[in-house]
Write a structure and sequence with these properties.
The protein has 322 residues and is α/β, with parallel strands linked by helices. The chain has nine helices and nine strands. The protein has a nine-stranded mixed β-sheet with strand order 3-2-4-5-1-6-7-8-9, sandwiched between helices.
Length: 322
């Protein structure tokens, strides 16, 4: 008996039927474009902490943002402040920091939240300790159902991190996932295929679960620490910046710091900003802003203007203090 199926090239059949089903005239999408034009997006915008950025950048569900910077340039500190502002916007966040213990991460956030230096003399006495205790207890209560911490340090397998992210998205309803850092999830700085595969998995996970992933990464060591980085300075595979939706480079103004240390009030750099976030990619936005920041040493907060008050995250984005 002769079977026709023996003569069918199923691979060719699959290719041809896929093309027939999915190659369509472009005009089919015009109704969708016109609908969007007539019905502007009214969904809530999830924003950066600083007011001058609110019309320039937003965190969209289903995207991955890469936060990159040199060692010691404050990328984790900047992201910590971003996390606090996300919580103030009623977003739910999980932080997987494989370079710092949870207590260290929360101490940084607590200090920003409390708007004060816990080591200053006013908090050394019994009354001061009690005042700080009250603030930290308030912070802890505020984080309930807003903030989770993935308690793992050192190198963590990519599969464990992806599993954590899926669990948090599906079971906890988390909307923002922070991973610090890429090099703790992929063994070897020269494992370009591993880096590409991991970031590719993150982009798919963000899209499929409608969450935003924040991935912290390191930059190559520059010729001079005062050099301003660009998107080609990221360590590892060039595919990393190609795959992510947004790229934010965190830069600390070491030139100003050194000049002020040497000259004090005579420094000509006193009015310069202390740090900057250089947006060098925003796939679904119109702008790639440079965000200048001023650092408050007591609270460890970054301000968008030296004259701005400190942020009170519980009442974000309102800037008045409690």
């Amino acid at each position: 008996m002769h079977f026709l199926s023996d003569e069918i090239d199923f691979a060719m059949y699959e290719r041809e039927t896929d093309a027939a089903a999915n190659v369509k005239p472009a005009s089919l999408w015009m109704d969708e474009l016109i609908f969007k034009l007539q019905n502007p997006d009214r969904t809530k915008k999830v924003l950066l902490p600083w007011e001058q950025t609110h019309g320039l950048f937003a965190f969209r569900p289903g995207e991955v943002t890469l936060w990159a910077g040199q060692n010691g340039h404050g990328k984790t500190q900047v992201v910590s402040q971003v996390v606090l502002s996300l919580m103030g916007q009623e977003e739910k966040v999980v932080v997987g920091s494989f370079e710092m213990k949870p207590g260290t991460t929360l101490a940084m956030m607590s200090r920003m939240y409390a708007q004060t230096n816990p080591f200053s003399p006013e908090y050394q006495g019994e009354a001061g300790v009690q005042a700080l205790t009250d603030l930290y207890q308030e912070f802890g209560e505020w984080t309930d159902n807003r903030l989770w911490v993935y308690d793992r340090q050192g190198t963590v397998s990519a599969n464990h991190v992806l599993g954590m992210a899926r669990y948090c998205a599906k079971e906890l309803g988390v909307t923002h996932i922070v991973i610090d850092s890429l090099m703790k999830c992929v063994m070897g700085e020269d494992d370009y295929n591993g880096q590409k595969s991991f970031v590719d998995e993150l982009t798919a996970l963000a899209r499929d679960n409608n969450v935003h992933i924040h991935l912290i990464h390191h930059l190559r060591k520059p010729a001079k620490e005062t050099d301003i980085p660009d998107k080609h300075d990221t360590k590892g595979s060039g595919a990393i910046t190609d795959l992510v939706d947004n790229l934010m480079l965190v830069w600390r103004n070491k030139g100003k710091e050194d000049d002020v240390k040497a000259k004090g009030r005579a420094s000509t750099k006193l009015q310069e900003h202390d740090a900057a976030i250089l947006c060098r990619k925003q796939r679904n936005g119109e702008e790639e802003p440079t965000i200048r920041l001023w650092f408050d040493k007591d609270s460890k907060q970054f301000k968008g203007d030296p004259n701005d008050p400190l942020m009170y995250f519980r009442n974000w984005p309102h800037r008045e203090t409690a």
